[in-house]
Fold this sequence. Notes:
Layout lengths: L7 H8 L8 H5 L17 H16 L3 H13 L4 H10 L2 H7 L6 H9 L3 E3 L2 E2 L12 E4 L7 H7 L10 E4 L4 E4 L14 H8 L2
Antiparallel strand pairs: 1-2, 1-3, 3-5, 4-5
Amino acid sequence: xxxxxxxxxxxxxxxxxxxxxxxxxxxxxxxxxxxxxxxxxxxxxxxxxxxxxxxxxxxxxxxxxxxxxxxxxxxxxxxxxxxxxxxxxxxxxxxxxxxxxxxxxxxxxxxxxxxxxxxxxxxxxxxxxxxxxxxxxxxxxxxxxxxxxxxxxxxxxxxxxxxxxxxxxxxxxxxxxxxxxxxxxxxxxxxxxxxxxxxxx
Length: 201
C-alpha cells in the first residue's frame, strides 16, 4: 500500500501551511526548505501555481498520483462542478471520514486504524482506506478496539459538531455520513479550480 512516508515538515514548508496538522518546525521556519529557501523570491508561473495546488491536495489527503488522477476522471464524469466534486470524493474516502469523526488525530493515523481492521462500515470490518463512503453509511470503531489509547486520546475534547455532513453517535464511537459536504464546509485551503485547469491542458 504505497503512500508518502518522507519528512512532513519539509512538505509543509514547501506550501507554507501546516497541511499535515500542527507543525512546530513550520512555526520556526516559515520559508521554503533547502539551502536557498529563505532567500527564494522567484515568481511562480501559472502552471507552477496549478501544479502546487495539485501537490497540496495530494499530500493533504494522502493520495498518490495515479489514485488522484482516477479520482479527477471520476469527478469529470460526475454531474456538478468538477473541482468541487473532486474535493467531495477526497472527503468521502474512508480514512478521511475516520479523521473527520475525530477517531484519529491525523489522516495517516486514520489510514493505519483502517488498515489494521479497527474500523467498521455498517457493522462490517473494512480495511480499505480508499473506500468511498456513501451517504447513510455508519462508520464506527470496532468493539474490540474501543479501548485503544490512540482513539481515546484523539476523541478527548474533540468538537463533533465541526462538520455538518457527519453525525456523531457516542454509543458506537462513530457516526453517520449524512451527505457529501458543500465546498464552503470543507476547511482545506485548496484552489480546486487550478487543479481542473492543470488537468485540462
